[in-house]
Amino acid sequence: MRMKPIASILAALMCGAAIAAAAARPTDKLLLIYLDESVPDAFGDWIEVKESGPVVTPEIPEVLKKIYDEWLSRTYVNRNGNRIMLSMAWGDDQRGERQAHRPEICYPAQGFTLETLRDEALPTRFGEIAVRRLTTNMGPRHEPVTYWLIMAGTIVQNDFDRRMVQARLIQSRLIPDGLLFRVSSIDRDDAHAFKMQQQFVADMMSAVGPGVRARVSGLKAAST
């Protein structure tokens, strides 16, 4: 006879725990960012140019549509003829299979050889961006790459960073969005390529508004 009250109490506790867990699950998504409207087609010494032929990229269009909600691919050139390829992709949900694919995985998957990989800090007048730099090859094409992944306004460089962002968002019930920002160039001189990429990023961060800058890089305000 005494077992019924105990069973009822246990059932109530289990039900309460299930409700609390469900309440803690993220349910709200961050606002969509329109990349094509957010990034100017000319800034600093750079201007967008239209490629006459197909551009070789590590992304597969079908995969892009499954993972991301917005993506942007452009080529810019400066007065000295230096060309920078810009690729940005944003998804409103970074959980499970919709997590962004990092270039060190995408490039080899499309036939590129990954030569070097290192983490560095890219300076801008608004602060430094934690970036990852890699060099890739496919036949005669040598392509140095600079990229970063930002999740819910925070740069994430590894799985630990990702889990920390997810844990922080549980309290606010926000679903973590993600934006992959990548610049690359066809250049046999790695030092020159990375210098041009750094200049391009710095010029772009100065050209966009503070709201866009925060969404695409995590940089909040000008340094003093």
Question: Care to describe what's here?
Answer:
The chain is α+β, with helices and mostly antiparallel strands and 224 residues long. It has a single domain, classed as Protein Transport Mog1p, Chain A. It has seven helices and eleven strands. The strands form two sheets. Strands 2, 3, 4, 5, 6, 7, 8, 9 and 11 form a nine-stranded antiparallel sheet that branches. A hairpin with a 2-residue loop joins β8 (141-151) and β9 (154-155). The radius of gyration is 22 Å and the shape is globular. The protein starts with a helix and ends in a 7-residue tail after the last helix. 29% of the residues are buried.
What form results from the Cα inertia axes?
A: globular
Oligomer: single chain
- CATH C-level: Alpha Beta
Reported for the largest beta sheet, the result is:
9 strands, antiparallel
Percent range for helical residues?
25-40%
**Overall pLDDT metric:** 80
Q: Give the CATH architecture.
A: 3-Layer(aba) Sandwich
Total domains, how many? 1
Q: State the end-to-end distance.
A: 73 Å
Supply the number of helical segments. 7
Alpha carbon gyration radius = 22 Å
